[in-house]
Design a protein that fits this description.
Elements lengths: L10 H46 L3 H26 L3 H26 L8 H21 L4 H28 L3 H7 L7 H30 L5 H6 L1 H6 L1 H12 L3 H26 L7 H20 L7 H19 L1 H4 L5
Helix pairs in contact: 1-2, 1-7, 1-10, 2-3, 2-5, 2-7, 2-11, 3-10, 3-11, 3-12, 3-13, 4-11, 4-12, 5-11, 10-11
């Protein structure tokens, strides 16, 4: 045994090291298990979401914005909600900002590189305009230190209003730009209870996988001495964006470009309105360095530029390369706070 090979006075130290090593291995296995849940459940959820859209005759973009966006934002909700309960507003707010940056720079960049993403001319433009509005409002609330409780109430109400608005768009989509898609849906089998139950099972898998990944990742990162705010802006943001990344890749593989873009934009909107609203409602003000707000608005601005410039066209792959480079720049700024932001994390 290891304890026999050391002096009696060092047995306690060896035991402590073994316990820490065992804990780390447990968290690694938890991370792998959670990632598996995310991968399998995201794949299945995209498949069933298409069948649900077919049965309900709903526009694929609206399925992406509402169903996929809310479902894949639940890991962010779990992280930020837990952080708020624990009194860690830095982790909660950092996770929202970081996830939105990663969703655009990394997830959208990979989506553009993975397939031919064509930008819509109607609903896509309107949805991106909503993202610009809520992102700007979220920034101003924190820069001007406006009353957070009332702002949280407004944002939560806005999340309900946005869902209703998307439902109205779905009804219009039956007669408008998605007419051909809706006509093809009529030739498919009708929606069954099994489709709904299956989608709920897959959605539960996404939630469970996200929670497992977040819990294991946070514990591993804490042992490396990373602050919770920086953790939320970087490591946790990437982990909680895995569902968006996986559902986007699977949507691209199945040539559901509208669903993949709607998933990214809709997830960011719900991150701000729903999760941001809850965070502001139940937590105090938390300072976020200006450089992170810069990347937050820069990422949102990139979506506006891409959707306006390539309206009705396929986005060239070099745009995806630019987004990936911006992702690297963002993480580089987090790793060198003294040089990039002049603020010690």
């Amino acid at each position: 045994m290891i304890t026999r090979a050391v002096r009696p006075g060092n047995r306690g130290r060896v035991k402590e090291i073994l316990i820490k090593y065992t804990e780390k291995m447990d968290y690694i296995w938890m991370l792998l298990l959670g990632s598996g849940f995310l991968l399998f459940s995201s794949f299945g959820f995209v498949r069933t979401a298409e069948r649900v859209a077919a049965g309900l005759r709903i526009s694929p973009l609206v399925v992406g914005v509402v169903v996929l966006a809310v479902g894949t934002s639940l890991p962010e909700l779990a992280v930020s909600g837990t952080a708020v309960v624990a009194g860690d507003a830095g982790l909660a707010l950092g996770n929202i900002i970081g996830s939105n940056i990663v969703n655009i720079f990394l997830v959208l960049g990979i989506a553009i590189l993975a397939g031919s993403m064509r930008i819509g001319t109607a609903k896509t433009q309107t949805t991106v305009a909503v993202l610009i509005a809520v992102s700007t409002g979220f920034l101003l609330i924190h820069l001007w230190n406006l009353p957070r409780f009332y702002a949280g109430m407004v944002f939560l109400t806005g999340s309900v209003g946005f869902t209703v608005y998307e439902y109205v768009l779905a009804l219009r989509g039956r007669r408008g730009v998605d007419r051909r898609i809706m006509d093809s849906y009529t030739r498919k089998r009708p929606l069954t209870a099994g489709d709904v139950i299956t989608s709920l099972v897959y959605l539960s898998g996404i939630i469970i996988g996200g929670i497992l990944v977040v819990l294991s990742s946070e514990n591993l990162a804490v042992r490396l001495g990373v602050s919770t705010t920086t953790l939320g802006l970087s490591f946790t943001a990437v982990i909680t964006s895995l569902p968006e990344l996986l559902t986007t890749l699977f949507s691209q593989r199945d040539h559901q470009e509208k669903m993949s873009l709607g998933n990214i934009v809709g997830s960011n909107i719900y991150n701000i309105l729903l999760i941001g609203g809850i965070t502001m409602l139940f937590s105090e003000y938390e300072y976020i360095p200006p450089v992170d707000w810069f990347f937050f608005m820069a990422a949102t601005g990139m979506v506006l530029i891409i959707t306006r410039w390539f309206r009705g066209r396929v986005v060239p792959r070099f745009v995806g390369v630019i987004l990936i480079l911006l992702t690297m720049w963002y993480f580089f700024s987090l790793s060198l706070p003294g040089i990039i932001s002049g603020i010690s994390y």
